Amino acid sequence: MSEQKLKCYVSHASEFLSEPWTMLILREFMIFGGTRRFEQLYSTLGISRNVLTKRLKRLQELDLIKKAPIFQDSRRMSYKLRRKAWELAPVMLALHVWAERWSGEDYESEIDFQDIYHNKPLSKAAVRDYKGKELNPDEVKVVPKTDNASNYLEKHRTITAALRDKQNAA
User: Fold this and answer.
1) Fold for the domain defined by 9-88
2) What is the location of CATH 1.10.10.10 in the chain?
3) Rounded distance between C-alpha atoms, residue 54 and residue 31, angstroms
4) What are the 10-residue block averages of pLDDT along the chain, 170 residues in total?
5) What is the rounded distance in angstroms from the CA atom of residue 144 to the CA atom of residue 153?
6) Phi-psi sector, 123: left (phi>0), alpha (psi -120 to 50), beta
7) Listed residue (127, 145, 158, 156) closest to 7, CA to CA
């Protein structure tokens, strides 16, 4: 019997974000204001030219970055972060905060992120309800949108989760 798979956007996004170097390339764009040249990426990342070329091409195909002349009629090109990629910034910042908290005392990040208007750290990412209250894992429910999702959730639900759901319904 084949294993039932659940289609969700986390698995969809991880298909391209988990490619080696992709997250670090996007980080470089986010650190340096959204624009980088090939040579800048190459020298800061220490990545091979052919891998960098492939990743940049893939990011262009996904419409996450665009290639443009440095200035009008220039043969030299730069890559610019598109809005679609910039909207990954909360994910990147959440990873940064999570790693900062849980990486251990022997590791300390050399950078932090602040807004340019107040020179204050950005707010920390959290799962919040519609009023802004921070939620714990047991305060979030998953709502299936398809029969496949309903079947998947029912098949893989733990007894504790089923009991909790029954108690919450009462």
Assistant:
1) Arc Repressor Mutant, subunit A (1.10.10)
2) 9-88
3) 21
4) 73 86 94 92 95 96 94 88 93 88 83 92 88 90 88 75 64
5) 8
6) beta
7) 145
pLDDT at 164: 64
Contact 43, 36 (CB under 8 A): no
Both tokens of residue 155?
């098949």
| Separation between Cα atoms, residue 100 and residue 38, nearest integer Å | 29
Q: Tokens 């707010």 sit at which residue? A: 123
Q: Which residues have C-beta within 8 Å of that of residue 157, sequence separation ≥ 6?
A: none
Strand bridging mode 77-81 / 35-36? antiparallel
Please choose, from the candidates 119, 95, 123, 122, the residue with its C-alpha nearest in 3D space to the C-alpha of residue 109.
95
pTM, rounded to two decimals = 0.77
Residue 90: CB partners within 8 Å, gap ≥ 6? 125
CA distance 138 to 168: 11
Query: What are the structure tokens assigned to 114, written together?
Result: 């602040």
∠ CA 33-57-76, nearest 5°, is 60
Token reading at 43 = 């020298």
